[in-house]
Amino acid sequence: MNTPAAAPQHRSRKHYVTAGLSSMIGTTIEWYDFFLYGIAAALIFNKIYFPAIDPITGTLAAFGTYAVGFVARPLGGIVFGHFGDRVGRKSMLMISLMLMGVPTVLIGLTPSYESIGYWGAVALVFCRFLQGLAVGGEWGGAVLMAVEHAPEGKKGLFGSLPQVGVAPGLILSSLAMGAVSRLPEADMLSWGWRLPFLASVFLLLVGWYIRAKVGESPEFQAALAQPKPEAPPLRAVLRDHKAPVLAALVACISEKTWFYTIATFSLTYAVGTLGLPRETILNGVIWGAAAALVTIPLFGWLGDRCSKQAIFIAGALGISLFSAGFFALLDEKTAYHTNVAMLVAFGVVYAAMYAQESSLFASMFPPEVRYTGISLAVQIGGAIGGGTAPLVATYLLAQGGGSPRLIVFYLAGLGVVAAVCGLMMRPYRQPLAQADAPFASGRAGKRVAPLASR
User: For residue 407, which phi and psi values (nearest 5 degrees)?
Assistant: First the structure.
């Protein structure tokens, strides 16, 4: 038996907390950069880079540049997942942070349509593609650093910490764009919108400093002591772990569609269709994200004490049950109803699902292919769901004559699909016959029910 390599090491509470918080802060910075583009695409880019076409087509074109980031995410997940499973989690996180921060600053420096025509839009697409690669590699490494550093019995809580980074990232990006939105319209469109993008250089330096202080994942270090797998991680995942990849992928389509419909499309709907002030809808997003900042670790903690699977399914069904209510609240056209809509959408429905994903999905794969497995599922699901969400919602809104009823049916159906996928999720259990040489064959282990916490 290779007990020395697999034996748990005693680590102080400070070690666990440092690993968890560094993952949370790092993801906060990367999501700030990623969400900043989404908000700008919804409110600004159609006027800056596509002013020569009508407003609806310009909005679709702006969302098209936004979707490029999601197209690149699966590629980032595959590339970073391969090296993350072979070289290490930490080094991939350092690279992904740089790959996100530099293009964000470059977006803030990109000339407008008036200066260089549609070449400005081409530059946006290139920078957005690099952002997508970074996010595709970031998520898997960040959650694994948190989950694999976490003590037993608390993987749900620690795994939720990098998920928490989404909330402050969304808050910071919304606050930044809300601040420049208070400028006179001409100033905001000429130079004001660029300031939040340029400020990313300071966040990049902070993130680099923090992540440099955390050591490599202990589970990955234990895996290094074993013989290397015969097959590359991607081939092993596609050959031996098809069911968990498919379940996580389809579930992510629903979760990402819900999130980006709320975080991005609703801005366009509230301002363009309902006539709400930009500040009102941005403040609502901030309140909802602030609630998620608290409820995501709360749901992660609950997942450790009851069932991650059950909480994930409840969140999925919440999409089906609250979709109509969300748009009904927005249609009231008041700050109060907008805030309530965002509080429930982000702080309850989204948080219940998202808090479980890191530890729940990680539990379905063995350590030697875990980075690749979860990255492949989540990033392809994110590309399909999140990348198309604003485009699909805009199309359905037009088909509904300005009514969101078709969007509601679409979201409700996706919620049911995600709940079914949640029922299919099972943890990986290494067969006893392979316990002494788990990487020699590269074959999958058994999946057992009920789903246990890792």
Answer: -65, -40
Count of CB atoms situated within 10 Å of the CB of 329: 22
Amino acid at 293: L
Spatial contact of 444 and 426, defined as CB atoms under 8 Å apart: no
Residue-wise pLDDT for 11-57, tens only, equals 555 666 666 677 777 778 777 887 788 778 777 777 777 776 666 66
pTM: 0.73
Hey, what are 122's tokens?
């081409």
What is the C-alpha to C-alpha distance for residues 264 and 273, in angstroms, rounded to an integer?
14
Handedness of CA 284, 289, 293, 298 (dihedral sign): positive
| Backbone φ, ψ for residue 306 (5° rounding) | -130, -105
d(CA 375, CA 361): 10
* Cβ neighbours, 10 Å, residue 143: 29
Out of 1.10.645.10, 3.40.50.150, 1.20.1250.20, 1.10.150.130, the CATH code matching 10-217+229-431+439-447 is 1.20.1250.20
DSSP labels for 38-78?
A: HHHHHHTHHHHT-TTS-HHHHHHHHHHHHHHHHHHHHHHHH
Q: What are phi and psi of 79, to 5 degrees?
A: -65, -50
CA geometry: angle at 390 spanning 335 and 45, to 5°?
85
Both tokens of 175, joined, read 């606050």
Helix ranges (DSSP H) in 110-184: 113-116, 119-149, 155-164, 166-181
Asked if 422 and 250 count as a contact pair (C-beta separation under 8 A), the reply is no
Report phi then psi at 429, rounded to 5.
-130, 120
The type of residue at 351 is A
